């Protein structure tokens, strides 16, 4: 599975640049493989991104802004939903990936399973 991050290499907006850097930096810190796809210099990338962002996720003008995140063909979300997942420690679920062993979310899941098994034993 490849995480696709649609970015604009030549955005005039500092807000968009910061959001893109935040997403890419976080993925790199977690050692998650991703493919940066430039929508500024590649018309095919721009058209694919625009066509594949779900209608309810598009802004009122109909043109989604970068960064937009996909797992292969599956839409994961935009910066705002990525940020929420980051704050909730659910980035792996947001990306449609299995958390690695030892990650906070994976440890919490294992503890919940163990507690459930203990409850059944009582």
UniProtKB/TrEMBL annotation:
Residues 94-122 are annotated as: Disordered. Signal peptide: none annotated. Residues 109-122 have a biased composition (Acidic residues). It comes from the Eukaryota. It holds the Pfam family SH3BGR. Coiled coil: none annotated. InterPro entries: Glut_rich_SH3-bd, SH3BGR, Thioredoxin-like_sf. PANTHER family: SH3 DOMAIN-BINDING GLUTAMIC ACID-RICH PROTEIN, SH3 DOMAIN-BINDING GLUTAMIC ACID-RICH-LIKE PROTEIN. This is SH3 domain-binding glutamic acid-rich protein-like isoform X17. It comes from Carassius auratus (Goldfish).
């Amino acid at each position: 599975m490849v995480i696709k991050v649609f970015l604009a290499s030549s955005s005039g907006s500092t807000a968009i640049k910061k959001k893109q850097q935040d997403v890419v930096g976080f993925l790199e810190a977690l050692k998650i493989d991703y493919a940066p796809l430039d929508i500024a210099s590649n018309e095919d990338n721009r058209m694919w991104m625009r066509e594949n962002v779900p209608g309810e996720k598009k802004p009122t003008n109909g043109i989604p802004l970068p960064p937009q995140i996909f797992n292969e063909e599956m839409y994961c979300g935009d910066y705002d939903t990525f940020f929420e997942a980051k704050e909730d420690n659910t980035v792996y679920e947001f990306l449609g990936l299995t958390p690695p062993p030892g990650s906070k979310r994976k440890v919490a899941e294992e503890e919940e399973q163990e507690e459930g098994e203990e409850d059944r034993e009582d």
